[in-house]
Amino acid sequence: MFKRNMKTSIFVTVLILCSFVWSAAIAKDSIKLYQVSSGVLKFDKGWLTAMRDVGKILEFPVAMYIIDHPRGLLLYDTGMNAAVSDGKCESYWGKGLCSAFMPIQRRDEVIDKWLEKFGYSVDDVKYVVTSHMHLDHAGNMEMFPKAVHVLQKAELKAAWWPEKFQRAAFVLKDYDNARDFNYLQLDGDFDLFGDGSVVVLDTKGHTQGHQSLMVKLKNTGTLFLAGDAVYTPENEAGVIPGITWNTYESMKSIDRLKMLRDSHQGSIWYSHGIDQYAEHKHDTYYD
């Protein structure tokens, strides 16, 4: 009896393992990733690369991602609020923020329009993974009341009750009607689908609860969507980020992403990398 039960147990375990490997393979083969932009921000590069290129005014893309996984459509960031589109910034952000960040966004560059372009709708989105809740990354959270919003718990606290020196980059009306949304509140890394294909990574530093996203694609390989953990290639090379909540934690997170990139033989995709964004495709998907 004992031997028979043991054989049954082993057989079930093998079936479970085979099922997991098969599911992971199917998921990896089926994932599509679109990189798009919520327009650009025009400001001093020194804000991204402390003590380097200070005073150099450039236009930086605001990267967002649409990821089609067999178990649900997800977004990584929702960009700048639709209300700042087509030169209407001051009526929403106010003169101070608009003169500091100088957003340039057309209405057709807002996340809902990108979804429509690729054949989706806002109601199709199952998960919204927000890197952090600054004005250029969480601006359209309220477009997705039916989705599960995946955030670090520390980020929610920081956004709803920011410290004085952090308040400028948080626009409360971006999410003041989202308090009762369905939140998956994290405290560290999280494998979103349980198959290793999409993993949320704790990369605090830029803000208290900043998070990046690791996505494994069959043909493209493993991508590390850095968010504002790594603004530009200079940050990846060791230049301290200019805007950061905690410099020590920021540099730890950059080092972590670089080590993960190397171990997975992957690539880091920046949030505001001008040249890298220009080199990527944006009218179709990566797989």
Structural overview:
Residues 11-24 have low confidence and may be disordered. A 7-stranded mixed β-sheet has the order 4-1-2-3-5-6-7, sandwiched between helices. It has a 5-stranded mixed β-sheet with strand order 8-9-10-11-12. The radius of gyration is 20 Å and the shape is globular. The chain has helices at 2-30, 95-101, 111-117, 153-160, 233-236, 247-264, 274-279; strands at 32-44, 57-69, 72-76, 103-104, 125-129, 148-152, 182-186, 190-191, 198-202, 211-217, 221-225, 267-269. The protein starts with a helix and ends in an 8-residue tail after the last helix. Strand 9 and strand 10 form a beta hairpin. It folds into 2 domains: 1-30; 32-279, Metallo-beta-lactamase, Chain A, CATH 3.60.15. By secondary structure, the protein is α/β, with parallel strands linked by helices.
